[in-house]
Design goal:
The chain is α+β, with helices and mostly antiparallel strands. The chain has helices spanning 16-45, 93-99, 102-111, 124-134, 148-151, 158-161, 212-221, 238-246, 253-260, and strands at 50-51, 57-60, 63-66, 76-81, 114-120, 140-142, 166-168, 173-175, 183-189, 196-203. Helices cover 35% and strands 18% of the residues.
Length: 265
């Protein structure tokens, strides 16, 4: 689906000199933001860790897998909390958009000592069917009814959703309908040790930074995006991107937000 670009007809047009002045002013803001991001990344790496004391066990296509197994011999592990519920046919468009980037990037992850795995509560058969349909090769396991997805803030019991909703994204949003949400968690294991530490988790709009294609899409088309289409979290361009790969799994981002009853930071 090609986005509506009618608004481009009314966009301001100036001389080259005026454009250059405006561009340099914007560049100053971009440079400042880049430096702010550098400082933020340093602070993120400096966050204290929490020791993982539970022995989380998952179901995989090849049998039971412990959390430590997902490290695959490396010392860092990125878990994508993929929103795929056992009681729903819904396939999260934003989670899929992130996942589309993973297989090509894994060679770089692994050379840097980082393993990747997706985790959902859906049963293995459902996960495998989605992997075949989407052509994905990365590791993807089921947490089922174990504590894992609940402990890391992406799954909610019915009682959690009552009385105003369940807390999501460190209290930035209250979930009223969805039993599962999305996010990314980072785990670390020291060399020569079996101890696992939880280092970082991000939810809501945090995983946007992992959507490489999104950065290309918002540069040329930002002026054409209506306020509704700019709603992010799944991704502001998710609907367009997912339809090109698998139209059957696509939902408009605004529809996702309204149906699930969640807000973003």
């Amino acid at each position: 689906m090609i986005p509506d670009i009618a608004e481009l007809d009314d966009h301001e047009v100036v001389s080259q000199d005026e454009w250059l002045r405006a561009r340099k002013a914007l560049l100053d803001r971009e440079v400042a933001l880049t430096h702010d991001l550098d400082r933020l990344r340093t602070a993120r790496r400096a966050l204290p860790w929490v020791r993982v004391t539970k022995d989380y066990v998952f179901d995989g296509a090849e049998g039971k897998r412990h959390l430590g197994d997902l490290f695959a011999g490396r010392n860092q592990l990125a878990i994508q909390h993929f929103m795929l519920s056992p009681d729903s046919d819904h396939l999260c468009a934003g989670c899929s958009f992130i996942a589309d980037h993973v297989d090509a990037a894994r060679q770089h992850f692994e050379q840097a000592g980082l393993s990747y795995a997706a985790v959902s509560r859906a049963p293995v058969a459902r996960i495998q069917a989605v992997k075949r349909r989407m052509g994905w090769q990365f590791a993807w396991v089921s947490s089922g009814d174990t504590d894992f997805s609940y402990d890391f803030g992406v799954s909610f019991h019915p009682g959690d959703l009552a009385d105003g909703g369940a807390e999501y994204n460190y209290g930035k949003a209250q979930i009223q309908k969805a039993s599962d949400m999305f996010g990314v968690s980072i785990f670390v294991r020291r060399e020569g040790s079996d101890e696992i530490f939880h280092a970082y988790s991000t939810y809501g709009r945090g995983p946007e930074l992992l959507m490489g294609a999104l950065n290309w899409l918002i540069w040329p088309l930002w002026a054409a995006m209506s306020a509704a289409k700019r709603i992010a979290g799944c991704a502001c361009m998710t609907n367009m991107g997912r339809q090109r790969k698998d139209a059957a799994v696509t939902e408009a981002v605004t529809g996702d937000a309204q149906r699930l009853g969640w807000a973003l930071r």
